[in-house]
Amino acid sequence: MTDKADISFHISTTSGIPIFRQLVDQVTRLVACQQLKEGDLMPSVNEVSRQLAVNPMTISRAYNLLTEQGVLERQRGIGMRVAANAAKSLAERLRMIDPKIDELLTQAEQLGIDRQTVIEYLKSRENAR
Amino acid sequence: MNVIELLGMERSFGDHKVLRGIDFSIAEGSITGLLGVNGTGKTTLINCVMGLLKADAGTCSVYGEDAWQASVAVRQRIGFVPQVFDGFEWMTVRQILDYTGAFYESWDPAFVNELVALFDLPDESKVVSLSVGMKQRVSIVLALGHRPRLLVLDEPVAALDPVGRRAFIELLLEMNRNENRTILFSTHITSDIERVAARVAILKDGEVKLHSDLEDLKQSYCRVHLHSHNGVERYLEGLTGCVRKEIRQHSARLTVQGLDPAWRRGLEDSPDVQIDVEDLNLDEIFVELNS
Fold it and tell me: FRET pair for B179, CA 20 to 30 Å: which of A8, A105, B232, B269?
């Protein structure tokens, strides 16, 4: 028997990103890095609605989308669990940061910073941490 | 069944036609936020639904009955928080609660006491001595005391402080979650709508210009910024869904509904133009639709 996942969701109501999208992204990230593990029981729609003071329909929508994407699965009479094989391989996790990398490279290009310099800068940052 | 059904509803004050053909319906169990700039007729619409004003033309029905002539049975199912709460100034909070309770079969004194505690209402104070915010709290308790199936609220949070607003929002959600109550409220505070409402309706020029799922709405609108030394005009070809554009020589600021991913990719791959896409929140969408 697995534990009920202890998740502290956070949302921004002033962001242009729909609330259900914000929740989907948070769960997807937590599952990808195995902070949420296969079989973990998710808090119920009503619990999340209460925690965030957000319309329950919005939470349902996030959970439904996560189910469609194979991240969560609905277990009758129990609730939503993290699906088997939902954790991502390294290649899949790298693909998740693709958009950020594209953004970084585009911006570097606009600032006239060549790719090699960006790579070296990333390495120097790693050493600094 | 739709709880509220408005069809071609019109209402004028003298020569001024405030509502010019309202088509709008609300399904059981939904939470809808009604938005509109000052003077667009939000209160007029709500007062028609409440049977406080008579529509000049069209349909205005609540629970299948004409709102103006609704039966007592239908009225008992509705709770209403008006924009301004006045009268009863000589009564104490307790007296006004008891007085109002006498009109409703389903008045729930235990629940009312919970609400009094939740909103920190001074039982024995006279209404006349209360602040605007406190009066609004009293008004909310009066509207909820009989556990209505439908709650209609005209700017219920305008005078509440952030703590009171949050408590009120949590209360609304609780009532919707547990008892599938239908809620319609008007407000200017869009961040409250973002939390609570699943649907949003925007009133403009006497019509409901937009009635949609809030999250779909937010997903569909974005702002696109273009920059190019060669001029931006030629990049606008093939752009669809543009609701507003400000074009200068080397830059453009576009508000787009349903941005075409192919058009976006084309520009992202083009070295001569820089494209930035920004998500819009409800506040920004509201401003865009009204400018």
Answer: A8
Q: Which residues contact B114 (CB under 8 A, 6 or more apart)?
A: none
CA dihedral B167, B169, B172, B176 (to 10 degrees): -120
Query: Which H helix or E strand runs over B51?
Result: none
In CATH terms, the fold of domain B2-205 is Rossmann fold (3.40.50)
- If you measure CA to CA, which chain A residue comes closest to B222? A16
A54 phi/psi in degrees, rounded to 5? -130, 145
pLDDT tens track for B86-126: 778 899 999 999 999 999 989 999 999 999 998 889 988 99
DSSP assignment, residue A13? S
- Domains of chain A plus CATH, in order, are 19-82 (1.10.10.10), 97-128 (no CATH)
The distance of Cα B232 from the centroid of its chain, to the nearest Å, equals: 38
**pLDDT tens readout for residues B180-211:** 899 999 987 787 788 888 899 999 989 998 89
Q: Where are the domains of chain B?
A: 2-205, 220-289
d(CA B215, nearest CA chain A) in Å: 5
Rg (CA), chain A: 18
Tell me the residues of B at the A interface, defined by beta carbons under 8 Å apart: 31, 166, 169-170, 173-174, 176-177, 191, 194-198, 214-216, 218-219, 222, 268, 274, 278-281, 283-284
Helix/strand/coil for B200: strand
Would you say B51 and B236 are in contact if contact means Cβ atoms under 8 Å apart?
Answer: no
Contact A56 B177 (CB under 8 A): yes
Asked if B81 and B154 touch (Cβ cutoff 8 Å), the reply is: yes
**CA B274/CA B267 separation, integer angstroms:** 7
